[in-house]
Amino acid sequence: MEVQLNSRSGNNIGEIVERILAYGRITPTDRYCLHRAMLSNNLFSPEEQKQIKRVCDRLHSGLLRIVD
Asked: Domain locations in the chain?
């Protein structure tokens, strides 16, 4: 599964986070995309950093379901 993760692709951080927060859950595909983005050499904008932090905070608070 090849996924592009730059701001010009259809799977950018903002879209991934928006989907996660809208459904209140994080899927294996969402986790894969976030993991791949974090391991890439691309730098995150301040807005992307804020969005990732929101997901992490909600995960730690139990406000997001992790689905398999």
From this structure: 13-66
C-beta of residue 21 within 8 angstroms of C-beta of residue 55: yes
Cβ-defined contacts of 10-13 (< 8 Å, 24+): 13/37, 13/44, 13/48, 13/51, 13/52
* Predicted TM-score of the model (pTM): 0.75
For the chain, the C-alpha Rg in angstroms (whole number) is: 11
13 and 45 Cβ atoms separated by less than 8 Å: no
25: alpha, beta or left? (left if phi > 0; alpha if psi -120 to 50):
beta
Q: How many other CB atoms are there within 10 angstroms of residue 58's CB atom?
A: 15
Q: Give the pLDDT confidence of 21-51 residue by residue, as tens digits.
A: 999 999 999 999 999 988 887 888 999 999 9
